[in-house]
Amino acid sequence: TDWPVLIQAAADNVQPPNGINTVITRDVYGKPVSVARTDTTNASWNATRSFYYDTNQRLCKRVDPEGAATYFAYDGANNIDWQGHTTNLSNVCNASQVAVADRVDFAYDMRNRLTATSYQDGVTVGSSRTWTADSLPNTVTQGDAVWTYGDNKRRMLTSETLALSGQNYPLTYGYDGFGSRETMSYPDAALVEFQPNRFGEPTKVAMPGQTTYASAITHHANGALATFSSGNSLGYSAVLNARQLPQQVSITTVYNDLYQWDAVGNLLNIDEISGSPTQSRDRAMYYDYANRLTRVDSAALGQFLYQYDDLDNLRQLTRAGVSYTYAYDDGGTRRLQKLHLTGQPTTEALGYSYDSRGNLTQRRPVSFGRPSHDFTVDKAHR
């Protein structure tokens, strides 16, 4: 088949360390069963993400190398009925593995449109949705906040209104005869116009009779911004190369930079033609076999060095005599546990704690007696 089963990163004259591969295992239907990063020289760096399916070939469980799993249940129309977090890492799809409080339930209408999301912990606020007859969003309600949407006869969005604490905050949109967005108004009644061209691209951003933010806007054939004049009379210009990547970007009297890229789209150099009178913006970037940034040489800020482990975690950043060392829970969750800073003017460390879902719950200085910062996160990861 055309499905990849082994990825061995390598470029011209740049070889990956011996034994490091990404292996994709599939079942007879072509569905991924596992994605593994393997190191034959050091098994402690191996990590596997596994996928399990029910008898209807629907994903029912994903086991992550960070030490947790997500279970998926379906209704008769193959919509996700609910999903839940569990620390049961077995290869069995069983709903009893998920505590009710760890579930997120979903409800749908007769046309399989999502109408409600509810969290079973009794704390997290869920949401509900209504739809127009042709399946455009009509309202979204979460707690005491309600978003209401309006559309014109061409089914283009004309308004978004947030109702919160007895106040309404409307956004409205106007269109020209070609269906391009022409105006936008804000809750304070400020009106902004865009004067779109025949491709629907804005040529101006201004408040009529008041402030002009940008004018004389032009675009490249691919839609990327080419030129504009800002409200304070500075001119912006961008030239693209044959691959549609920035080749030269300039702002009048501010900077004029050239960009160079490698064969896979990594930025190699930023060369300043003219600009700041006090320091150069020139930078050179270097990458390893996996296209990870390993070094930056900056004319203004000096050299930055980056080191990674086999799982692509940043392990060390060094610059100007200061070293940042990142320590992870390598044997379990693989989450960042400590950030250690050495060098002038101080030497200190930060520790991190997480909940079972991987949300950050505490950031604490290990030295100097500084206070910790605690975070409370609901089941919606907010």
Give the topology, please:
Elements: E1 6-7, E2 20-26, E3 32-39, E4 47-53, E5 59-64, E6 68-74, E7 80-86, E8 103-108, E9 114-119, E10 127-131, E11 137-142, E12 145-151, E13 157-164, E14 167-175, E15 181-185, E16 191-193, E17 205-206, E18 212-219, E19 225-230, E20 235-240, E21 246-251, E22 255-261, E23 267-274, E24 283-287, E25 293-298, E26 302-308, E27 314-319, E28 322-328, E29 336-342, E30 348-354, E31 360-365, E32 373-374
Antiparallel strand pairs: 1-2, 2-3, 3-4, 4-5, 5-6, 6-7, 7-8, 8-9, 9-10, 10-11, 11-12, 12-13, 13-14, 14-15, 15-16, 17-18, 18-19, 19-20, 20-21, 21-22, 22-23, 23-24, 24-25, 25-26, 26-27, 27-28, 28-29, 29-30, 30-31, 31-32
Short description:
The protein is mostly beta strands.
